[in-house]
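Encode chain A's predicted structure.
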Amino acid sequence: MKTGSLCCHDAVVDHDKERCMADMLSKLKRADEDMLLENLSRRGFIKVTSCAALGLATLQASEALATMKASPLVIMEKAAGMIVGDPTLCVCCQRCELACTEFNDGKADPKLARIKISRNAMFGPEGGLENTTKGIYGSGSLVIQDTCKQCPHPVPCATACPQNAIIAQKGTGTRMVLKDRCVGCRLCQKACPWGVMTFDEEQGKADKCFLCNGAPKCVDACPAAALRYVPWSDRTREATTRGSFSLMVPDDRRAACNACHVESPGGPRNLKYEQ
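Encoded structure for chain A:
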């Protein structure tokens, strides 16, 4: 009887030990699971917040890019210098055209020259039907050198460009074409009153005189000193336009112009230009 009671007692003790051990294992398991969930929650939180921050930054960058692309470029700066020609000295050797294209295009191709000599050599800038006083076959022998006027605001070629591809160069203020933006629409050519924009058929890109970064090669190449690089002055009013030209202003740029210009008794005034 006594022996049987001890056996029962040992059995109960063993059972209690097993239950305690099971409880301990269960608690440890739950603790591990809680710790795992906590770690996962932390990582998940970091991941979610990182993705959210990246998404927000991307959205802001996209909005900024869209705003930048939508904002029209309006050139207000004046150029530091310009090229002027003296027709009484020009001997029509066309070295200036060769120097221009060799420097800018790496080849001798007068039709790409930013300075125009050959087209005016015969009858002058107005052409044979309208002009009889300039050129080899006119009553006079003057050869008119057509050069970019580095127009003040509003710059016709830049105003017409829908890609903001014509800008004012830093330092010189020269109006220049950014080839990577140009799409070859030729609207700048149509807008220039003096027809001095050039177009490379092979590249499908427009270009213009940018004064060779302040050291015009055409001026250096002229053997008759018929070209001079001088401080800029507005010669757009005194220069005769060449043929017909048309300025097509994109709607976004037209709206930007309307925001600056106001009507006045003496005609439209540009408030920003006056400041």
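The first strand starts at residue 81 and ends at 85.
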